[in-house]
Amino acid sequence: MGVIRIVVLISQIENAEVVRVISNRLKAYGLQRAREAGIPTHYHNLKKFGEQHPDIQDPLLLRRLYDESLANLVLDKKPDLVVCAGWMHIVSPSFLDPLEKASVPAINLHPALPGAFNGIDAIERAHQAFLQGKVNKTGVMIHYVILEVDEGQPLVVKEININQGESCDQLAERMHKLEWLAIVEGVQLAINNLPDNRTERV
Question: Residue 200: its pLDDT value, please?
């Protein structure tokens, strides 16, 4: 429900249009809801891509070609901005270079504060660090996507205290509500940073 909620929120931003939703999980609920909302969708999975290209045995080559294919898929709709929300594959130059050449920035939603808990399981690791007395807060950020994982320039940063006795699931629920606020602010800021002659297709 989280991703499609984000899609709906972005769609409500003035002059913004969601032109495609892409997932690498076939049964992602966001794909179904996006289709029901009339938004074009595409399932793009690395394993499926490999099955479609059985002649490619080198995993590094396969990943490079997959990322190139993903970039082409994204740019096919001529977006002005790419929003990564729930996309768990680490992006490579094969994906980012074509976007940079086309002057299309990408932003990412990450459930942690800048420089803290980069990568996967950020909420779980923050909760564990709280139980160990290492932190008393965490947060959400929207940042520009670069090669280094979750190290791009932040656009939006929102902090949240971790409550004593709070379970990881309870923290995650509060974090998701914070994400919905952050993504709208982040997309709007990224749109504002686009050149004046660009529309707002995401």
Answer: 57
- CA–CA separation, 109 vs 119, rounded Å? 11
Task: Tell me the average confidence (pLDDT) per consecutive run of 10 residues in the chain, 202 residues long.
Answer: 63 79 84 83 92 94 96 94 87 95 95 95 97 97 95 97 97 93 91 73 62
Its pTM stands at 0.89
CB of 145 closer than 8 Å to CB of 110:
no
Known catalytic membership, residue 110: yes
Q: Are the CB atoms for 115 and 166 separated by under 8 Å?
A: no
What pLDDT is recorded for position 96? 97
Q: Among positive and negative, which fits the CA dihedral 129, 130, 134, 136? A: positive
Which residues, 6+ apart, have CB-to-CB distance to 94 below 8 Å? 63, 64, 65, 67, 68, 71
SS3 76: coil
Q: Which of 42, 44, 53, 110 is catalytic?
A: 110
Question: Residue 168: its pLDDT value, please?
Answer: 97
Tokens of residue 52, six digits: 């479609």
Strands 106-110 and 137-144: antiparallel
* Calculated CA dihedral for residues 154, 92, 180, 79, nearest 10 degrees: 100
